Amino acid sequence: MDVKVSSLADRPDRARGVWEMADTWPRFVIEDPVGAAYYPRIAAELPAYVLFAEDERGEIVATAHSVPFALGAEGRGGLPARGWDQVLHWAFSDLRRGVRPDTVSAVSVTVAPHAQGRGLSAVMLSALRDNARRHGFREVVAPVRPSGKHLEPRTPVEEYVRRVRPDGLPHDPWMRVHARAGATVACVAPASMTVSAPLEDWRRWTGLPFDTDGDVEVPGALVPVRCEAERGYAVYVEPNVWMRHPL
After folding, report:
1. Quick check: 77 pLDDT over 90?
2. Ordered DSSP codes for 129-159
3. Can you give the pLDDT at residue 233?
4. CA 136 to CA 142: how far, in whole Å?
5. Which of 2, 56, 79, 129 has CB 3.0 to 4.6 Å from 242, enough for a Cys bridge?
6. Looking at residue 72, which CATH number applies to its domain?
7. Structural domain count, the chain
8. Residue 213: inside a domain, yes or no?
9. What are phi and psi of 38, to 5 degrees?
10. Is residue 148 part of a domain?
11. CA distance 199 to 208
12. Is residue 20 part of a domain?
């Protein structure tokens, strides 16, 4: 698919289209309270780090969000175990305090449902890397959500991410896109995103009963959701995989 990639800094008129583009994220993923607090602010406060692709008709078919942050700031230095949630917190804390960033983190690459399977995820990842390089950064990191892990929710993530194909590339399709772009696996982020909510919310999001204590396999979840039926809530702690892209 032939697309044109722009940033919201250059095309602020497309902000609504970026926000309203259809996606296929599981409902519970977008209920992460950290994401709910920070994700909308990327477009508003860091528009140079929001990219979008338009097809020949001018329809937005893919987006890529990223944030600059100071990985080398005092008390940090290593990629956080809390992955996606932590890097968003760091990025906006740094922005508020005027801390100079030294790294860019990918936050999401999303392709509209009707445009999937045409290589746009790789196009947007490449554009995200190029955008970071234009802004003077030498590394992009990414808390990667392995796209095939939901098919094996009870497989330990450490075991899953070690799998490689005969050609040496990762077994997981989305990790493989990153690897082809030059990234290497750094470490697992065991608690990259946490969603805790009353059982009625989980029932509404998933259509599952959530009426028994224990682990519940939820479509789209990378690991089981822990249900505490007697206490009236369930918790999902999603692992991601940190991958590093030298630029």
Report:
1. no
2. HHHHHHTT-SEEEEEE--TTGGG-TTS-HHH
3. 98
4. 18
5. 79
6. 3.40.630.30
7. 1
8. no
9. -105, -35
10. yes
11. 10
12. yes
